[in-house]
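This part of the workshop introduces the protein records we will be handling. Getting from the letters to the tokens is the skill we practise here. The record below serves as our worked example for the rest of this section.

…
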Amino acid sequence: MKIKNFIGDSFKDALETVKKELGPDAIILSSKAVKTRPPNLANKDVVEVTAAVDETGDISPAASIAIHDVEEILREIRSLKDEVVFLKETLRPVVPTLRVGKEKKGLFNILTRNGVDFQFAITLLERSQESIDSLRSVIKQDIKTQNLLSAEGNGLIFLGPSGVGKTTTMSKIAHLMTSKKNYATLMSLDEGRVGSIAHMKELSKQLRCQLKVIKRVSELPKIIYKEIGRGPILIDTPGYEYKEILEDIREIFPSRFPLKRCFLMDASMNMQSSLKAWQHCNNDMIDYIGFTKIDMAAQYGNIYNLSLLTSLPLSLITTGTDVPGDIEIPTPEFLANLITGGTYNGHQ
């Protein structure tokens, strides 16, 4: 193994000297900037390259290390190249590529600023004309709504994450139902929350309805089939085990559960959190969705995202904590206005 140092004004110059003297098989072991002082001249910055060539067929340990380092660098470059290609392909359908005018780009910005998913926003623009009214018309076609009071049938069971407002929402619905002279039976599977039970006891007194507090889903059939003839039944559930409750319902009522199942989501939550909660439950067993705390939401685009992803009718929105009150049965027109940058002002 022949090892030698080479000096050049630049790395390129030094490398050319290496190739001329040691040939194309030379291996660069190191390079560094140094100062040299030619005769009668000031100090000059140059590059010193240490190179080696195998003259015997054996490669020294130092050369082997250098070769290994080069191979590692090449592998990393190839890996980075593959990642860049993958990212380009992944982002291709997401990045807006529409050939639209200035007006339509403005609509795109309105949607995304208000929290509508990028891909959903692009699809909406592809289907709409260059006006806000046209965009709202397309959104109205996508969002399903259902008047809860005309479709509750035998009653409702409310499910959803902790803190979403199930007990409060159930209280609002109970007031709406009893205002139409319906007798309602209130039930709770959330016996562990003392505050929730105290609230429901007070509610049952106000509405002159009976309250049933039970521990297990297995107790539901006896009570439901006894009380269902008297009027609608409303059931509150704990937020930490809604998946298990739905699994028990499927097992105990294999043919048909007599009540409608409404899954509530907090309108102020981001899409990732809401979607995670939705995916955590047996969502094929849900009949309606509802959004709570709309008065606390900074954006409303998530209503469109989740309505589209769940493909279920949106049955209610709650707009505050007042009971009775602060609840609305939304219309597609009202929701389309919110999603396209409208503000909630207390009424539709």
About this structure: The chain has 13 helices and eleven strands. Residues 15 and 49 are 8 Å apart (CA to CA). Residues 102-140 form one domain. The chain has three domains: 2-65, 102-140, 143-339.
